[in-house]
Write a structure and sequence with these properties.
Keywords: DNA-binding, Transcription, Transcription regulation. By secondary structure, the chain is an alpha/beta fold. Helix content is 44%, strand content 18%. It has 14 helices and 13 strands.
């Protein structure tokens, strides 16, 4: 891939690996194309576990061309297999913030002669049948993929990204805070349960090794399904790690249009995820069910509930062998105040 330009924010720090006595450059970047590809694939997968139903339906409504769906379909993981995506899906390496429009234009104008080489790296000489049409006509495949991602972006994608921007900026501030405290290893090991960093490299799902060497590490938070992870390892300049931002898609209401953060006074006061938690707790609910409704990890739901509990807005109660969480009188009064 070709290094992409930085549109605005880049945070650079150096991680000193004591095991190998090496310095690794860390960067944080906002890269919407990783998120758009992730949610588009999750919408096509349609297993009901990844993204909210309303968002999935809106995504499917804009991904209506046969060529576009055909461009995405080879990237869907087969049962029992790990999804493997060639680096050609992102012609520009995001060494800094990279706009969606820039990546789309790169896809549309790219002959993508490297696609076959990418596929050989992944599969060897036996390229799967689902990839053969793309390998034979890579320029057509690249244009179709660019057109489809443009449809996703101009439809629900841009809206989802813009409404998550506050959470994304907050995540980049978390990066800065940890790096300021010299806690780079903590940062790299709290991106996703699927990712571990040690001794100058990443380990994905406990078995896939990704050595960093002297390359940069670019951390790119995504709005995506909770288990989505992207590790781009083919570029000589940077290893790009896309990881899911917990609760980023929680604003997609199960009943009608998504709630817009700018119109949500309660979210303005206490934050979007906590506002969603309060609204969903007029009756007691288990933490696992709450996390599922918020489309976030149970640990994320627990963290926000702990904060709400310390403010007297929710409380935990025992029901049989289960511990449930519910809104307090004060929490209900706060919801009513902003309704």
């Amino acid at each position: 891939m070709t290094p992409g330009r930085a549109d605005h924010r880049v945070r650079t720090d150096f991680l000193r690996d004591r095991e190998k006595r090496m310095a690794i450059e860390l960067r944080s970047a906002l890269v919407p194309d990783l998120s758009m590809l992730s949610v588009a694939l999750q919408a096509l997968l349609g297993d009901g576990k990844g993204i909210p139903k309303l968002l999935r339906l809106r995504l499917l409504s804009v991904m209506h061309t046969p060529a576009g769906r055909a461009a995405l379909r080879p990237m869907l993981a087969q049962p029992g297999q790990r999804r493997q995506i060639p680096s050609s899906v992102a012609p520009l390496t995001p060494v800094g913030d990279l706009s969606m429009e820039t990546q789309i234009e790169a896809l549309r104008s790219n002959h993508n002669d490297g696609l076959r080489g990418n596929l050989v790296e992944i599969y060897g000489d036996r390229i799967p049948q689902v990839w053969r049409a793309a390998a034979e006509r890579p320029a057509r495949w690249s244009r179709a993929l660019g057109d489809t991602l443009a449809d996703v972006w101009s439809g629900p994608g841009r809206d989802a990204w813009s409404r998550s921007r506050t959470a994304l900026d907050s995540e980049l501030r978390r990066h800065e805070s940890l790096l300021d405290r010299g806690a780079a290893h903590t940062l790299l090991n709290t991106l996703s349960p699927r990712i571990r960093f040690d001794c100058g490299g990443f380990e994905l799902d406990g078995r896939v090794k990704v050595p960093v060497g002297d390359r940069k590490i670019v951390l790119a938070p995504m709005i995506s399904a909770p288990d989505s992870v992207v590790v781009e390892n083919s570029d000589p300049v940077a290893v790009v790690v896309g990881y899911p931002l917990p609760g980023a898609l929680a604003s997609w209401s199960p009943a009608g249009l998504p709630v817009r953060e700018s119109d949500d006074a309660l979210a303005t006061v206490i934050g979007h995820v906590r506002a969603e938690i309060l609204r969903r707790l007029p009756e007691p609910m288990s933490m696992s069910r709450l996390a599922a409704e918020l489309n976030c990890a149970p640990s994320t739901a627990t963290h926000h509930c702990n904060t709400l509990e310390s403010a007297g807005l929710v409380e935990r109660i025992r029901q049989g062998k289960s511990i449930l969480v519910r809104r307090t009188t004060r929490g209900s009064a706060l919801v009513d105040l902003f309704t």
